[in-house]
Write a structure and sequence with these properties.
By secondary structure, the chain is an alpha+beta fold. It has two domains: 2-172, Jelly Rolls; 177-248, Arc Repressor Mutant, subunit A. 44% of the residues lie in helices and 23% in strands. The strands form three sheets. Strands 3, 4, 5, 6 and 7 form a five-stranded antiparallel sheet that branches. It has a three-stranded antiparallel sheet with strand order 8-10-9. A two-stranded antiparallel ribbon has the order 1-2.
Length: 268
């Protein structure tokens, strides 16, 4: 098995142990966790030979809840390719308040600005749902853009899909009710997590949707009374995905269709 960690290639077989030692369960657990890495669908859409070239440039990282991976107005030193979990791209205002502009899951990456040649970030990357990601330096990302046509094509296609997501989000904020937008947001998180239990607080929901906490509570309560979700401590569980889709606005399906159109191999 070959893994790339922190820019180094590591090759080791599962049955390769020093003489006189017993297998360590923790070691096998760690190896199993990385045996199918990376799991980012954008990277996996690359031809195998190109992904192999990129592997030494990728670093496996854990993404913790509410962790800031990159702040607004900071140097754009790295690009992140989520394997699991969700990263929010948020605008930061002078008073410290934030509002979500887009989300990134395993179907994409944080490289839109880097793909356009930016050297500093105009937005904050905030971990919304914990998970893991492949981390790549901007220098390595730029080299791949210049030398790898398949990588460059994917990044441009993803940039188009990302911008369309932002545009739909802007329109949705002005055209649809908070309950519809909350339903859409929960569905988008569910698409990326494969789990009905979403580790999210209502305070963070309020920030992401640009609403007051009491308003979020009312909207969530309505969805819960309809049997669509269940609220818990720092968690929201989807109980009826089909019903939640009906309670959402058309923007949810529109974003899915547009991403699938530009990146048919990355979004399900």
């Amino acid at each position: 098995m070959v893994l790339a960690l922190n820019g180094k290639i590591i090759e080791r077989r599962h049955n390769e142990l020093p003489h006189g030692t017993s297998p360590d369960p923790a070691w096998f657990k760690g190896m199993n966790a990385l045996s199918d890495w990376p799991r980012n669908r954008l990277l996996l859409a690359l031809p195998p030979r190109n992904l192999k070239r990129l592997m030494p440039e990728l670093e496996f990282i854990r993404c913790e809840r509410e962790q800031i991976l990159l702040d607004a107005d900071s140097s754009l030193d790295h690009v992140f390719f989520p394997d699991s979990g969700v990263i929010s791209v948020v605008a930061v205002y002078a008073d410290g308040s934030i509002i979500e502009m887009a989300t990134i899951g395993r179907e994409g990456c944080s490289g839109v600005q880097a793909a356009l040649g930016a050297k500093s970030s105009s937005a904050r990357l905030l971990v919304q749902i914990p998970g893991s990601a492949a981390k790549m330096s901007r220098a390595a990302f730029t080299r791949a853009m210049e030398s790898m046509p398949s990588f460059r094509g994917l990044m441009y296609a993803y940039s188009q899909a990302f911008l369309e997501q932002v545009m739909v989000s802007v329109a949705c904020n002005g055209a649809h009710s908070l309950k519809q937008r909350l339903a859409r947001w929960l569905l988008m998180m569910r698409d990326r997590c494969d789990d009905d239990a979403l580790l999210i607080t209502q305070d963070l929901l309020a920030e992401m949707l640009g609403a007051q906490r009491p308003s979020i509570t009312i909207a969530a309560r309505e969805l819960e009374r309809a049997g669509l979700i269940k609220r818990g401590r720092r968690q929201v569980t989807i109980r009826d995905r089909q019903g939640l889709t009906k309670a959402s606005c058309e923007c949810y399906q529109l974003v899915r269709e547009r991403v699938a159109f530009h990146l048919p191999k990355t979004y399900v």
